[in-house]
Design brief:
Blueprint: H1 6-15, E1 19-22, E2 25-26, H2 37-49, H3 56-59, E3 60-62, E4 69-71, H4 80-96, H5 106-117, H6 119-123, H7 129-143, E5 147-149, E6 152-153, E7 173-177, E8 181-189, E9 199-202, E10 214-224, E11 230-234, E12 258-268, E13 272-277, H8 278-287, H9 290-320, H10 326-351, E14 354-355, E15 361-362, H11 365-390, H12 408-414, H13 422-436, H14 439-450, H15 455-465, H16 468-485
Parallel strand pairs: 1-11, 5-9
Antiparallel strand pairs: 1-2, 3-4, 6-8, 7-8, 8-12, 9-10, 10-13, 11-12, 14-15
Helix pairs in contact: 1-2, 4-9, 5-7, 5-9, 9-10, 9-11, 9-13, 10-11, 11-13, 11-14, 11-15, 13-14
Bound molecules: flavin-adenine dinucleotide.
């Protein structure tokens, strides 16, 4: 089956009954529910981009097995040119959502492509896990499926050491193995896109219980979202059912976050990719390169987001007539710096990419991983800069209905600026508020702080992979030279 259209994606969601709860009620149809439908339509629009004639080449490639054109984010990159082409495709999707849907399907597509390329790694657990991951990757590529993922176990309390405190009754674990598969029970967070995905992937970025080589909490599998016993509990929707004018981003890009409950869910053997082995699970992201590949997707999203926020800031200062003031220029300059740093890191990761042991072209680790760490502080600062630039204009934001009400003439007269009509000014600042202030905007800030793990873990990860020896050597050599001359 070739790359899907948006309509095929929406039909797929309707065909697969799933248990989704929102606001105390079970959702009957996620494609029509007022809190979810416009987010699903945004994903559908991404799939439709694959069929725009002038974009077809850029968005798809020829499947090595079926010969059909399939989504380019599924490619197992073999050359730097493959990475660049994939980045252009991912940027196209990210720009279509202004960078506001971090969990667009390419996020998981690049992860599974990296894993399929490194299938031998999975075979170290049990021999069938290697073919399992390869077959599953081909299945989602050929069907162009959308995946959510839930990596984090809930914990009832925390240890000072940072070692995860996993307990049965809370964390997801294997209850038993049967001829048909493994039965799992527990909860996982945070399944962004959960209600509007076809499948859920469950794995772990880390399970730091290194004193035990095997654990019932060590799992890597994927199942359909409609699997019996699997339930999604949504937070409240940030699509408030308002017009595009009133709520420009929340009315378009609600990707929804969920807790996923697994109530004795059977995972068929062919969908199990790792089981029990803590060292294998802990090593997956670096050994297979999936960390760098998913960071590559994140970098494209970050760049699109930087560009969009910068564009909004430029328009804000133009509208308010303060673009030339030094403090505005300083703040705009900071946004420009983040934008260009993001672009530079992304390009450096491609330019310095090297093939891994399986021949998959892997983005260079440092520049691509740094885009994640940088964004945990850069994005909250970007939202803050919008707030500083906008000040009270964020509150001078009547709704679309007010423009048709009795105060319309006063609004038109008093809210206009030299650079803008009242309507354009309010429209722009409602957009800026959806980035810097609304529930939708606040969730974006939270997302960028935490989506790639908590900042402490990220900092430790970066420190662990940084090639420190070279820096130390330079200083020790300098110190030795100083000794000679004294
Ligand atoms: C909007 C949003 C969307 C997300 N989407 C997804 C998704 O699609 N899939 C997915 O799997 N995950 C997703 N995540 C979850 C994300 O991976 C986690 O939020 C992240 O890994 C941090 O885990 P946590 O939230 O449990 O934070 P916690 O572990 O609760 O950490 C909270 C704070 O406490 C600190 N802390 C924690 N433990 C200790 C300790 N022992 N000692 C000292 N300090 C500690 C941390 O540094 C952090 O500052 C999402 C998160 C957000 C906010």
């Amino acid at each position: 089956m070739p790359a899907r259209t948006g309509r095929e994606y929406l039909e797929g969601l309707q065909e697969q009954e799933r248990e989704v709860w929102l606001g105390g009620e079970r959702v009957k149809d996620v494609t029509t529910h007022p809190g979810l439908r416009r987010g699903a339509q945004a994903i559908a629009a991404l799939y439709d981009l694959q069929h725009v004639p002038e974009l077809r080449e850029a968005m798809t490639y020829v499947s090595p097995t079926s010969g059909e054109r399939v989504g380019l984010s599924f490619i197992v990159p073999r050359t730097r040119a493959d990475l660049e082409a994939r980045r252009e495709m991912m940027l196209q999707w990210a720009r279509a959502t202004c960078g506001m849907m971090g969990r667009s399907p390419d996020f998981m597509n690049v992860t599974f492509a990296a894993w399929a390329g490194a299938a031998d790694y999975f075979a170290q657990g049990r021999s069938q896990f290697g073919p399992n991951i390869r077959r599953y990757y081909e299945y989602i590529r050929e069907k162009d499926l959308t995946l959510t993922h839930a990596l984090i176990n809930l914990q009832r309390s925390r240890t000072v050491s940072g070692v995860l405190n996993l307990e049965e009754g809370t964390a997801l674990h294997v209850v038993r193995e049967t001829d048909a598969g493994v039965v799992v029970r527990g909860a996982r967070v945070l399944a962004t896109l959960g209600p509007i995905a076809d499948e859920i992937a469950v794995y772990s970025p880390r399970l730091a219980q290194l004193d035990q080589p095997h654990s019932p909490f060590a799992l890597n599998f994927a199942i359909p979202c409609g699997t019996p016993g699997l339930r999604f509990l949504c937070r409240e929707s940030f699509d408030l059912g308002r017009s595009r004018f009133d709520h420009p981003l929340g009315s378009r890009f609600e990707e929804m976050d969920c807790v996923a409950f697994f109530d004795d869910v059977l995972v068929p053997w062919e969908r199990v990719f790792m089981l029990g082995d803590i060292n294998l699970i802990n090593g997956t992201a670096m050994a297979t390169g999936s960390s760098m590949h998913s960071a590559h997707q994140g970098a494209a999203k970050n760049l699109a987001k930087c560009e969009f926020v910068l564009g909004v800031a430029l328009l804000m200062t133009q509208t308010l007539g303060n673009a030339h003031l030094p403090h505005s220029e300083e703040r705009l300059g900071e946004l420009m710096m983040y934008t260009e740093l993001m672009r530079a890191c992304m390009r450096a990761a491609e330019a310095d990419a090297e093939p891994d042991q399986w021949g998959t072209m892997r983005p260079a680790a440092m520049p691509v991983e740094i885009t994640r760490n940088l964004f945990t502080t850069a994005y909250p600062r970007m939202a803050e800069i919008l707030q500083l630039l906008g000040s009270s204009s964020f509150m001078i934001t009547p709704t679309e209905a007010d423009f048709g009400g009795p105060l319309a003439p006063a609004i038109e007269q008093y809210l206009a600026t030299e650079g803008s009509t009242a309507r354009d000014r309010v429209k722009l600042f409602r957009l800026a508020w959806d980035i810097a202030g609304s529930a939708f905007g606040s969730r974006q800030v939270l997302y960028e702080r935490f989506f790639a793990s908590d900042p402490l873990t990220r900092a430790r990860f970066l420190s662990a992979i940084y090639p420190k020896a070279e820096m130390i050597k330079r200083v020790t050599e300098f110190l030795e030279r100083s000794d000679e001359t004294s």
